[in-house]
Design a protein that fits this description.
heterodimer, A: about 120 residues, mainly beta, 6-stranded mixed beta sheet, 4-stranded antiparallel beta sheet, 12 strands, globular, B: mainly beta
Chain lengths: ~120, ~110
């Protein structure tokens, strides 16, 4: 069985501050990991993805994430947040299941950036 | 850029009524998905399809039917809407069954009263 846990339901940071959103996963197979962002009244959009190789992956808008197999984690980071980063962030795990690739979504973390 | 369009954007339905949510994609993707989002929860897969005229059950298919009459269109049908089906519904599409990027519609907010 596979699972994704985002332990922080809500995170509030000041504009210009650094950010880390946490994600822990459990997978019996090789994990493929994604971060998606949902802006208000919009569908989810891909921020970045990790398949293999360098554990630090770069995404759009200055986001990056670091994969750790030993910690079963895939945390999202940004050096300096902007008010427009306020959104809901989802960590997503994909793993082969019965000939298909099953996606498991975390519960989401609501990020609020205050001036 | 992939385009996935959902209609309606919001709907109020009565308990026991029939509801049809529509999804249209213009990027010739073979896979299409219907997800449900409840407040404070991640997305859960209801139905999906990888070819026209065929649909597959996801993780929570009970109370829902799906229809894929063409590559571009994928509908979600609630034959007898219930209060517990109040949620936001997202359609998504992607190319192939591997790890390619999912492209989401903007969602349909359904309220069943």
């Amino acid at each position: 069985a596979q699972s994704v846990t985002q332990p922080d339901a809500r995170v509030t940071v000041s504009e210009g501050a650094s950010l880390q959103l946490r994600c822990k996963y459990s997978s019996s197979g090789t994990p493929y990991l994604f971060w998606y962002v949902q802006y208000p009244r919009q569908g989810l959009q891909l921020l970045l993805k990790y398949y293999s190789g360098d554990p630090v992956v770069q995404g759009v808008n200055g986001f990056e994430a670091e994969f750790s197999k030993s910690n079963s984690s895939f945390h999202l980071r940004k050096a300096s947040v902007h008010w427009s980063d306020s959104a809901v962030y989802f960590c997503v795990l994909s793993a082969p299941t019965g000939g298909n690739n099953k996606l498991t979504f975390g519960q989401g973390t609501v990020l609020s950036v205050i001036p | 850029e992939a385009a996935v369009t959902q209609s309606p954007r919001s709907k109020v339905a009565v308990t026991g009524g029939k509801v049809t949510l529509s999804c249209h994609q213009t990027n010739n993707h073979d896979y299409m998905y219907w997800y449900r989002q409840d407040t404070g929860h991640g997305l859960r897969l209801i139905h999906y399809s990888y070819v026209a005229d065929s649909t597959e059950k996801g993780d929570i298919p009970d109370g829902y039917k799906a229809s894929r009459p063409s590559q571009e269109n994928f509908s979600l049908i609630l034959e007898l809407a219930s209060l517990s089906q109040t949620a936001v519904y997202f359609c998504a599409s992607k190319w192939g069954g591997g790890q390619n990027t999912l492209y989401f519609g903007a969602g349909t907010r359904l309220s069943v009263l």
